[in-house]
Amino acid sequence: MAKILIVEDEVNSAQALEFFFSDRGHKVRTAGRAAEAIAAARELAPDVLLTDVLLIGDRDGLAVARELRSSDPRLPVVVMSGLPEHEVRERASGVELFRICPKPLRLREIGTTVEAAVASRLGGGAG
Amino acid sequence: MHDRYVDSEQDDPDERARADPPEDHGRLAELQRLREEAERRARQQAALARLGLSALTEVDLGKVFDAATRTVVETLGVELTKILELLSDGRALLLRSGVGWHEGLVGSATLPSDVGSQAGYTLKSSAPVVVDDLPRETRFSGPKLLLDHGVRSGLSVIVHGRQGPWGVFGVHSRERRTFTPDDVNFVQSVANVIGAAIERGRIAGELSRREQELALRRAEERFRRAERLASVGTLATGIAHEINNPVNSILMTAEAAQMARGREDWPERADRALEIVVREAERCGRIVRDVLDLARPGSPGQAREDLGDVVRRAVDVARNLTKKGGLQVDLELADDLPPVALDAAAVERLVVHLMRNSIEASAAGKARVRVATERAGDDRVRLTVSDRGRGIEPALLGRIFDPFFSTRRTSGGVGLGLSLVHGIVEEHGGAIDVESRPGEGSTFRVELPLAGRPHGAGSAPARISGEASEGAPAERAG
After folding, report:
1. Is 3.40.1010.10 the CATH number for A3-123?
2. Where are the alpha helices (DSSP H) in B370-411?
3. Phi/psi-derived region of residue B149, left when phi > 0, alpha when psi is between -120 and 50, beta in every other case
4. Which residue of B lies nearest to A52 if distances are taken between CA atoms?
5. B387: helix, coil or strand?
6. Looking at this predicted complex, what is its ipTM?
7. Do B248 and A57 touch (CB under 8 A)?
8. What is the sign of the dihedral through the CA atoms of B415, B416, B418 and B419?
9. Topology of B297-466 in CATH?
10. What radius of gyration, in Å, describes the C-alpha atoms of chain A?
11. Across the interface, do A32 and B410 touch by the CB < 8 Å criterion?
């Protein structure tokens, strides 16, 4: 079981991801906005961040990643986005990403990726 | 002495040879003269050929002038030459180039172009003007310039331009001399080379100007193409992104439902998934319709319409967007409006989009929208759509007309509505103005010219105004 924080402002997409990861036995929290995501992370202390890039509001998913990394430098970040990969990397500006998954997503693939991200963190020996 | 002369004539064989026979002596002199004339002509031809070549290849007109004056000085042995340009007012001739003149005159001295001077007389003559003795000349009084330089003899010809004379070419000598017809031909030929060089320079200048214009036009065209491609790129990215989101939801929702098959809550999960799939597919359809609307060419100014009728039709459409009783419309239509030249279907869409924007900015089922029309000056009408919805965050006001800018993704806003509105206003040569306060509502004012879009009207000015408000939700509202 891993603790997964999902940041996605599309309610239906977020819900599908939540069902999927919950069904696989993980503990899941979802958030639609940056501020909400940062608050949720404080409670959950996630093992992995799965985030969209473009969010409603003035901060994007990569800003969330940057902030969570400042208190948890080994937190793996999986990005899901319809943006071109180079644009995502540009916006990430230095935040190391475990993987960028292009939308539309297939649940099985995103499941494998997120679980690999969790394993990479545990394999690295950090909390 | 006479005898001696005769004697000596008979006795001295050398003397005899020199004098005899008188006819042979004349023939020799004539041959000599012909030979010298032929040599002179050959020198002139060669000099002319060299000058012609330089005039063909030299870009700098000043250098061609210098070469022409040098050629004449060397070939004819004259002391003074001048190239005079007839100035645009036709009343004076400017000393453009020449040799033998006092310092400071070349480039600045002018002569009157009337028939009182040799140059002026030349302009009016169809043939070259030859002067044997200037102080005794009767056709004109030698101009001060020539007399000051002690000129006695001279020869001047017209330098022909594209339309009429360009100026005068003259050669002068301080000693009295007689210019032969060959000299005249030579000087006229040099003048013709000068004229050809001037014309060639003019054409080259014209060509280079046209080339520059063409290059500028090409650069502008490239820029516009790049801009178009950039906006096509923006639009394509926007459409892809907007469609991608509901497609992503449909895909994951359906996949999650498939995976839940066999579980005890499967029927409910499947039902819920189907609902979501239908709603998200509808959203895709809406995006496609809006994109098609955006691409629809407008044809404003085709018909004079009653703006009130157009607004009433739009209100009916907007009412159908909400549940019965969920929308209150305050309609304030001016009854003194003249017919307006407009594309009725487009303006109806404009009103519907503004109303939809207002409805979506308001609390569900409690939308109250005011729609008003009024006269705005002599030649315009104003259409106002206002609400008491969430209002627009000041930081976002400047972006609300951008395609795909939306803060309402989750509630079904696609982000094209206000772009469509802006496009329709632009098509009509009108203007749109927004005023918004977060928490209090927004007012959109559209002004349209009564006469429709004026010819060549550009992009619609959009004015935005709002009030800064800390911590207000970043929602687009209408």
Report:
1. no
2. 394-397
3. alpha
4. B245
5. strand
6. 0.86
7. no
8. positive
9. Heat Shock Protein 90 (3.30.565)
10. 13
11. yes
